[in-house]
Amino acid sequence: MKRMVREIEGNFGPVTARFAILVARFNSAIVEGLLDGAIDTLRRHGVSEDNIVVVRVPGAYELPVVAKKVAARDDIDAVIALGAVIRGATPHFDFVAGQCAAGLSTVALDSGKPVGFGVLTTDTIEQAVERAGTKAGNKGADVAMTALEMVSVLRQLDD
Ligand code: INI
């Protein structure tokens, strides 16, 4: 329907933005699939490999502090954080996943830059595998799309 109101929404035109992709090593067999998906999506939307930097950290819990550091840099426009927190039988899951999500959200709000939450939080390894490039898609690719869209939205709001 044609409306008269001004609307702002992200587009996926030529992308000049620079991306930091943060990658947790924990559950690396799964997280590498997310990284492949994220880089593939950025590349296919015209992002040059020169404008992508990958930073590896021990686990999902470490993602926020590194996100804060890279988001503060003038040569980074958006952050994509990738990890996999799998429940298993311990309450550790709730602390790691909860602090990771809360920390990344704080970084986005404090920096004003997009911070994509590409951290799988699943009950089982099978569920994580399904979301890392097999039958339930690829969360890394999805979050790269979100980052592209958010760069575009935030840039338009700067104008
Ligand atoms: N880190 C993860 O990325 N995924 C997990 O599933 C996980 N579990 O289950 O413990 C995990 N723990 C490590 C954590 O991220 C920190 O690296 C560690 O606690 C040191 O600070």
Outline of this structure?
The chain is of the alpha/beta class.
Gross morphology: globular
What's the end-to-end separation, in Å?
26 Å
Number-wise, the strands total 6
Query: Which blocks of ≥5 consecutive residues have pLDDT under 50?
Result: none
Run of helices and strands = EHEHEHEHEEH
- Ligand identities: 5-nitro-6-ribityl-amino-2,4(1H,3H)-pyrimidinedione
Strand content range: 15-25%
**Mean pLDDT across residues:** 95
Count of alpha and pi helical runs: 5
Features:
binds 5-nitro-6-ribityl-amino-2,4(1H,3H)-pyrimidinedione; alpha/beta; 159 residues; two-stranded antiparallel sheet; 21% strand; 6 strands
What does this 3D model show about the protein?
It is a single chain. The two termini are 26 Å apart. The strands form two sheets. Strands 2-1-3-4 form a four-stranded parallel β-sheet, with helices on both faces. α1 crosses α5 (139-158). The chain has helices at residues 28-44, 63-71, 92-111, 125-130, 139-158; strands at residues 19-24, 52-57, 78-86, 115-122, 132-134, 137-138. By secondary structure, the protein is an alpha/beta fold. The model has no long low-confidence stretch (mean pLDDT 95). The protein is built from five helices and six strands, in the order βαβαβαβαββα. 5-nitro-6-ribityl-amino-2,4(1H,3H)-pyrimidinedione is lined by residues 24, 26-27, 58-62, 83-86, 92-93, 96.
